[in-house]
Design goal:
The chain has 297 residues and is an alpha/beta fold. The protein is built from eleven helices and nine strands. It has helices at residues 3-32, 43-53, 83-87, 92-104, 112-119, 139-152, 173-182, 202-220, 236-244, 277-284, 291-296, and strands spanning 64-65, 68-71, 108-110, 129-135, 156-160, 185-189, 226-228, 249-251, 258-259. The chain binds zinc ion (ZN).
Length: 297
C-alpha cells in the first residue's frame, strides 16, 4: 500500500468515525429531551436545557396545555335583568352537557393538587385533562353541581370563603362537610371575607390569606394547597404571602390554558359559560394571549 493510499484510508476512517459520533449526538439530543412523565425532574431546569439544545422544538415540554375552567354560579337565574349573575352563570343543564363533552372526548378531570404534582414531575400527565374550579362556595354548588359531579364521578376544586359559610346564598357547614367527605371535591382557599387583597395593608392581607387556610383546615380536617385571588387581584407582594402561607398553587382570572411552573401562583383560567360540544372543545384548546405574553409588550 502506497503512503498516499494509507493516508486516504486513515482520512476515510476518521470521516466515518466523526460521522458516527455526530449521529450519536443527534440521536441523544432528539430523544433525551422528550418529556419523561412520572420522573421526578425539575421542570424549570429541563426547559432551560431544552432551549439550549433543541432549537427546533416549538413548545418546550416543561409546560403543557391544561384548561382550568372557572365557574361561579351554576343555576337557573331567576331575575333576567340580573345581567352580572347571568354573565357569571352556567345553567345546570349546560354544565352537565359540558361534562358529557369532556367524557365523550376522553378527558380526565383533575384537581389543583394533581396539577401541582404535574408541575413537580411527581405524576405523569394524561393526554387530555381538564380542571373544574368553582369560586365563592355558592349554595348552588350543593344543589346542582355536586349531584352532577357524583353522577359522572368527576373531580373538581372548590374555592371557599370561610366568612360566607352559612350565609343565605352560600353553602352551609353541613353541606360543605358532605362535599369534603365525598372525596370528589378538593377544597381551596378564597380568603376570609372576599376582599381585594391589593387594596389592604400587608398585615391584613396576611390575615385574609393565612387565617382562612387555618380555619378551613381545622374545621374540616383537610389540607388546603391551592388559593384563588378574590376579583383576580394580586401583585408580587401578595404572591409572596400566598407562597409563605404554604400554598402550592394559586389561580387567577387571567384567560389562558398553558400551565407553566413559573406561573404556579397565577395560573390561567377559562370561563366556559354556555358553550358545550365542539364549540367548547375548540375554545378551551385554542391559543390564548396569556398575561405572560402581554407583559412582554
Ligand atoms: Zn370570588
Amino acid at each position: 500500500m502506497t503512503s498516499k493510499r494509507k493516508t486516504d484510508k486513515i482520512i476515510n476512517l476518521i470521516s466515518v468515525f466523526l460521522f458516527f459520533i455526530s449521529f450519536l449526538g443527534i440521536v441523544y439530543l432528539t430523544f433525551d429531551n422528550k418529556p419523561k412523565p412520572g420522573k421526578n425532574i425539575d421542570l424549570g431546569v429541563r426547559k432551560t436545557i431544552v432551549r439550549k439544545t433543541v432549537l427546533t422544538k416549538v413548545v418546550p415540554p416543561s409546560y403543557f396545555r391544561i384548561p382550568i375552567l372557572v365557574y361561579h354560579y351554576v343555576e337557573i337565574v331567576q331575575n333576567p335583568k340580573d345581567t352580572i349573575r347571568e354573565s357569571l352563570n352556567t345553567p345546570p343543564k349546560v354544565f352537565e352537557n359540558q361534562l358529557k363533552t369532556f367524557i365523550n372526548n376522553g378527558y380526565q378531570f383533575v384537581t389543583l393538587s394533581d396539577i401541582s404534582d404535574y408541575l413537580n414531575g411527581k405524576k405523569a400527565i394524561p393526554k387530555h385533562v381538564v380542571a373544574l374550579t368553582f369560586d365563592d362556595g355558592y349554595r348552588d354548588f350543593y344543589t346542582y353541581v355536586f349531584p352532577i359531579l357524583k353522577k359522572y364521578h368527576a373531580k373538581a376544586t372548590a374555592y371557599i370563603v370561610p366568612g360566607f359559610i352559612n350565609k343565605q346564598n352560600n353553602l352551609t357547614s353541613f353541606q360543605l362537610q358532605q362535599i369534603v367527605d365525598s372525596g370528589l371535591v378538593e377544597i381551596g382557599d378564597h380568603t376570609i371575607d372576599h376582599t381585594s387583597l391589593t387594596s389592604m395593608s400587608h398585615n391584613d392581607a396576611w390575615y385574609e390569606i393565612y387565617q382562612s387556610k387555618i380555619e378551613l383546615e381545622n374545621t374540616y380536617n383537610i389540607n388546603i394547597e391551592s388559593f384563588s385571588y378574590p376579583y383576580g387581584s394580586f401583585n408580587s407582594s401578595i404572591i409572596n404571602l400566598v407562597q409563605q402561607a404554604g400554598f402550592k398553587t394559586a389561580v387567577s382570572t387571567r384567560p389562558g390554558n398553558i400551565v407553566d411552573p413559573k406561573d404556579r401562583y397565577y395560573l390561567f383560567r377559562i370561563h366556559p359559560g354556555y358553550l358545550s360540544g365542539d364549540r367548547l372543545l375548540s375554545y378551551i384548546e385554542s391559543n390564548f394571549i396569556t398575561g405572560k405574553k402581554l407583559a412582554k409588550k
